[in-house]
Amino acid sequence: DKHLLGTKGLSAGELESILDRARYWEQHPVKKTNQLQGKFVANMFFENSTRTRFSFEVAEKRLGAEVLNFAAAVSSVQKGESIYDTVRTLESMGIDAGVIRLKPNGLLAELASKIKVPLINAGDGNNEHPTQALLDLYTIREQFGEFRGLHVAIVGDVQHSRVARSNLWALKTLGARVSFCAPPGMQAPELAEHAPYVTIDEALTADVVMMLRVQLERHEGTLLSSAAEYRASYGMTVERAGMLKPHAIIMHPAPVNRGVEIDDELVESPKSKIFRQMSNGVPIRMAIIERALS
Ligand code: CP
Question: Which of 34, 86, 87, 269 qualifies as a FRET site for 199, CA 20 to 30 Å off?
Answer without folding.
Answer: 269
